[in-house]
Amino acid sequence: APAAGGAASGGAGAAAGGKGVAIEYWNPFTGPDGKFMATLVDRYNKENPNGDSVKVTTVPQYYDKLSASAASDTLPDVLIVHLDQIATMAARGVIRPLTPEVTGGVQGSDYPEAAWKGGEYKGQRYSIPLDVHPLVMFYNQDLFKAAGIDKAPTNRAEFEAAAQKLNSGNAMGFAVTTGFPILQEFQTLLHQYGGTEFNADGTQVTWNSDAGVKALQWLKDMQGKVSKPNLPVDAGVNAFKQGTNAIEWNGIWQTSNLTGEGAKFGNGAPIPTIGDKPAVWANSHQLTLAKHKKGEDAAKTAAAGRFIQWLTKNSVEWAKGGQIPASKTVRDSADFKAVQPQATIAPEIDYAFFAPPVPGIADALGELEKGVIDYMAGKATDPKKALDDAANRATQIMKQNQQRYGG
Fold first, then answer.
1. pTM of the entire predicted model
2. Contact, 40 vs 311, CB < 8 A?
3. What is the Cα Rg of the chain in Å?
4. Average pLDDT, 10 consecutive residues per value, the chain (407 residues)
5. Which of 63, 85, 66 is nearest to 355 (CA)?
6. Ramachandran area for residue 154 (φ above 0: left; ψ -120 to 50: alpha; else beta)
7. Kindly report the CA angle at 285 between 21 and 341, in degrees rounded to 5?
């Protein structure tokens, strides 16, 4: 990932001598997507009419670094923040509300309502969505063809039949791990069965419901029938690339790794509707401005606004790294429709759900993840009790967070 930062910094240096404003931009893109962002920043530095220059830095242990840099007042100008961290970063004073010059050319109607709403905290807008990255279904086209399956399954009956047919001596039909993304798979099924993680205002845990038990039980059943027990994180991804896992549910950011050059037999499709209605877990990278204790530089704020608006308008390049552009204008373009399988997966945006905008919500979801993993790994034997125990732990954390951040 440092190479990604380096590649773009060259362009920034070349433009710095112009009449424009030099700004800094940090992101967490240490994976294969980093190079796509570096390409975009490089292009901006060469093309923008103001002669602005953007120095991009890819930062590992990202949120730890943001907290430390906020304390020492050394944050850059522009940040990427995940939707589920916006409220936390706003409450901690790491980011600041956007000014009209930053949001001027951006219309909320051009974005999925849930992704747009996620950029608000206490009635103020803190961020603009760059993308939506949902859970998707990757499948091995060669294994599908050999098994006589001619299309990606879209419902429970089709999915279970396909996974069982594809489950053979040397290949799993569908890898169910006991690490990432098992939480996101559970959340997807919870919503498909009509449940939610929290109540409407994000103040109470509701995942230990009948829908939660159904979701967890389905994953356990599939683990027993077509997967292997106690698979660690990335075991499904690795087996997929080796041709020993026919179906992998994972984040769309794995696209370049599991399709195309990464695995020529791989393709991607929306997650099937296993429950009663379509729903899919997603997160969103949002563009925001860092807060500086020493005060804000108006010229840098204006330059940051120009960069943010340009990035969202030119997000087809970013989509190639395995994302769905948040902007409907971009998604409707012929350029994006040619980006596959992302364009095939894009309709998931209409039923994607996100974490509620509550400070510290990720801490509560961490307890749910522990509960799901304990059950999937056989440490807990009763699905309802595993979810109840996780709910009790998360409720304590949420009470502490309400005191820490204010209700």
1. 0.91
2. yes
3. 22
4. 33 45 96 90 96 96 96 98 96 94 89 95 96 98 96 98 94 96 98 96 95 98 96 96 97 92 93 98 98 95 96 94 95 97 96 94 96 96 97 96 85
5. 85
6. alpha
7. 115
